[in-house]
Amino acid sequence: MKITFLTIGKTEDAYLRDGIDKYVKRLKHYTKLEMVDLSELKNTKALTEPQQKVKEAELLLKKISPLDHVILLDDKGMELTSRQFAAFLDKKSIGSTTSLVFIVGGPYGFDPSVYERANDKLSLSRMTFSHQMIRLLFVEQLYRAYTILKGEPYHHE
């Protein structure tokens, strides 16, 4: 199963990039992970929040195929423990899912068209994190999920 992590904008802080790179390298032993960073919109001061979300939706939806199982990282999504997230991934890999696409939206969230296309929503916490920080948290949890599935000692309870 291929996993794509689709985001808008680049990770600017070096310490976050270093952490993300660390887990992306580790994940190569478990799954195919593609990191796709779409360029942030330019000249957004002239756009309202809804207009900006529509433009971002156009960028995101172009990168998704009809066969992709799309999961939005969204504060209103399902809340899972690390073990439950591992079981979720396992269920998808055992089933007919060949491609999972996890998406982090722009600063104002997702346009309704992206919500309509999504198959699931996942919340990493009830707390609010920066869009850059959530990238590191997500890849770490993805790595943790795979180590749980393999019975490796990374995860402790």
Automatic annotation (TrEMBL):
Keyword Transferase applies: yes
Subcellular localization(s) per the UniProt record: Cytoplasm
Organism in which the protein naturally occurs: Mucilaginibacter antarcticus
Function: Specifically methylates the pseudouridine at position 1915 (m3Psi1915) in 23S rRNA.
Binding locations of S-adenosyl-L-methionine: L73, G105, L124, S125, R126, M127, T128, F129
Top-level taxon of the source organism: Bacteria
The family this protein is said to belong to: Belongs to the RNA methyltransferase RlmH family.
Annotated signal sequence range: none
Protein known as: Ribosomal RNA large subunit methyltransferase H
CDD domains according to UniProt: RlmH-like
